[in-house]
Amino acid sequence: MSADIFIRDKVTRYEHFLNERLRTDLRAVLEHRDAVYSDMAEYLQLRNVLEKTQKLGLTQSGLKTIVDLGANFYAQARVMDPSRVFVAVGLGFFVEFTIDEALGFIDKKVALLTGKTHELTEQATQIRARIKLVLEGLEELQFKGEPPGPPRRDVW
User: Fold this and answer.
1) Is the torsion defined by CA of 45, 38, 120, 86 positive or negative?
2) Residue 51 CB partners (closer than 8 Å, separation 6+)
3) Cα Rg for the chain, rounded, in angstroms?
């Protein structure tokens, strides 16, 4: 009888660890990875715009555009000197670059963000492996002494 209570207590602690720690960690890592992918998409979009601006020769003359003021409010704007752009470099700082300098910075930043996404994907894989290990341990504890059933497959 006390062994049964001990097993139930252990199962409860493992379930708590699984739900409160591992799954929340996995969710946080995946959300962080999604944010990094979003940043990378913005830099790639900026690179495409700068390359098209450079290709069309719009760096010499003025440029007419629409600017998002926030909350989906837009205003027309005129850029007098489109040969220089401000690029967000991180931590809320912006740096003024020429188009060639900005393209070089964007390539380096995208490479850095790609490495970060690979690192976060590896972390997510490790957490998923831990979740699977805990689930197998829980199954072993709960069905101790019973013949094993057909193999189960986790759905993520």
Assistant:
1) positive
2) 103
3) 26
3-class SS of residue 84: strand
Question: 98, 32 in Cβ contact below 8 A?
Answer: no
CA distance 34 to 30: 6
Q: Which amino acid is at 45?
A: Q
Residue matched to tokens 């752009």: 85
Tokens found for residue 109: 């930043």
Residue 120 has pLDDT above 90, yes or no: yes
CB 67 within 8 A of CB 75: yes
pTM above 0.85? no
d(CA 13, CA 7): 10
Can you tell me the distance from the alpha carbon of 119 to that of 34, in angstroms, rounded to the nearest whole number?
A: 13
